[in-house]
């Protein structure tokens, strides 16, 4: 066999492997009026902006213009609460599976398009009690619930959803129990 067909075959196999591995995760459209409210972070992949968070929660409020007001709260192990405000909007008008999220800070005021992050809803259960949210590059992942704790079977289901979407769940940081938080 000459080298040229062998190189072509190798290139095709490599491209096929890359396209499968690098395909973005599948998303799920949501009813934003049902999605609004409080969500507790059960687990997340490590990220610098949540490095001090032992417990986190997000509060979403649907606005009349279709955007969503966002308040993220983080509780440190010292018991201190930190809070950031922002807004989310559909990346494509009328589609609710992929959102842009931007938080209020000096950088986002100067560079609003650069400061926004991708928030992809990968899964939400039929009762809007649990959800899996991530980033198309799989850099970020959150397992969310309407309650701060879930039973083991629910936890395993959320992990299965994340793994099925190609996320490495071995590095997840789980919500600290209330007993691990110091009284303020």
UniProtKB/TrEMBL annotation:
GO cellular component: cell outer membrane
Lipocalin/cytosolic fatty-acid binding domain mapped to chain residues: 30-176
Superkingdom assignment: Bacteria
Signal sequence, renumbered to the chain: 1-23
Cell location: Cell outer membrane
InterPro entries: Calycin (IPR012674), Lipocalin_ApoD (IPR022271), Lipocalin_bac (IPR002446), Lipocalin_Blc-like_dom (IPR047202), Lipocalin_CS (IPR022272), Lipocln_cytosolic_FA-bd_dom (IPR000566)
Keyword Ribonucleoprotein belongs to the record: no
SUPFAM superfamilies found in the cross-reference section: Lipocalins
Keyword annotations: Cell outer membrane, Lipid-binding, Lipoprotein, Membrane, Palmitate, Signal
Lipid-modified sites (S-diacylglycerol cysteine): 18
Entry GO MF terms: lipid binding
CDD domains reported in the protein's UniProt record: lipocalin_Blc-like (cd19438)
GO biological process: response to stress
Function noted in UniProt: Involved in the storage or transport of lipids necessary for membrane maintenance under stressful conditions. Displays a binding preference for lysophospholipids.
Subunit structure: Homodimer.
Annotated PANTHER family: APOLIPOPROTEIN D (PTHR10612)
Family per similarity comment: Belongs to the calycin superfamily. Lipocalin family.
Official protein name in the record: Outer membrane lipoprotein Blc
Higher taxonomy: Bacteria, Pseudomonadati, Pseudomonadota, Gammaproteobacteria, Pseudomonadales
């Amino acid at each position: 066999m000459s080298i040229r067909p062998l190189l072509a075959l190798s290139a095709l196999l490599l491209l096929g492997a890359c396209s499968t591995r690098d395909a973005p995760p599948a998303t799920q459209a949501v009813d934003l009026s049902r999605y609004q409210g409080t969500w507790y972070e059960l687990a997340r992949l490590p990220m610098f902006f949540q490095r001090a968070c032992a417990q986190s929660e997000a509060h979403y409020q649907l606005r009349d213009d279709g955007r969503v007001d966002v308040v993220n709260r983080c509780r440190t192990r010292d018991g201190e609460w930190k809070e950031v405000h922002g807004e989310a909007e559909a990346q494509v008008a009328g589609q609710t599976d992929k959102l842009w999220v931007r938080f209020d800070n000096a950088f986002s005021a100067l560079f609003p398009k650069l400061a926004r992050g991708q928030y992809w809803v990968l899964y939400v259960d039929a009762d809007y009690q649990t959800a899996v949210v991530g980033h198309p590059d799989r850099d970020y992942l959150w397992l969310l619930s309407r309650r701060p704790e879930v039973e083991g079977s629910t936890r395993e289901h959320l992990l299965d959803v994340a793994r099925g979407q190609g996320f490495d769940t071995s590095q997840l940081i789980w919500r600290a129990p209330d007993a691990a938080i110091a009284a303020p």
